[in-house]
Amino acid sequence: MIRRVLSLTGLLLLVISNPAIAARERISLAPAAGEYSEADIEKEVIFGREMAAIILTERKISPDQRLNRYVNLVGQSILRHTNRPELSYYFAAIESESINAYAAPGGYIFVTTAALDRMRNEAELAGVLAHEIAHVTDRHIVTALDIRDDDESMVAAISRAVTVSTESTSVVFAHAIRHALDLLFTRGLGAEDEHAADVQALFLSAASGYDATAYYGYLERIGPEVEAATGELDRTHPSFAERLARLGQIIDQEGLSAMGGYKNEKRFRANVRGED
Q: Does pLDDT of 127 surpass 90?
């Protein structure tokens, strides 16, 4: 198995766990889509690392170390219920007035400070991070961008298209990364990928011991504000009404409201709001 270690925040990544509840064991998370080789995984991780590096040159990580450590802790607690142990994940809070969260291939996940400001508890944060984790585990971006260790892949095709005698391999790769960022932030992923990530956000939250319905409540609350604004989230997601309708069906079918779970409001306020 391939692992790549890169610290985005300079903080120790710790793993926390939540008590298992028997009723949650019946929730089955979907396997990662498609078949892929160890070489494909390496390409995915390298590509995602370079995307993350560019994202961090354009968007600043919050200087609040306590906040970043907390986001990492919540994110890492969800990973024990996922199905891609070959990846190492990194979480960070990004300073931005846009209510958003996004993931680069290979496990690089970011949530904006504006999104954190709109949250009310840890369960809502867990749902948002779980949604982004699902994009990685199900290889949504990798598939959309055709990232693989293959001469016929998108990366190889772009390399052939832009390569000239004066360009190095790193410059060629940068062209491919920029194309990928355009797909991620401008053209967007397909609606079905977003719906699939929403559903897994519910399941991952529940499996991690959180109140899964908190994610639904967060989307319901921010929907009008996000859709009234212009930003990345508007271009990359289906309508909130459609998302909420599908999530409501899953919540009813799986009995998630009755399962309850942690919200951890006090801990959230202490780490995000500084209310000790």
A: yes
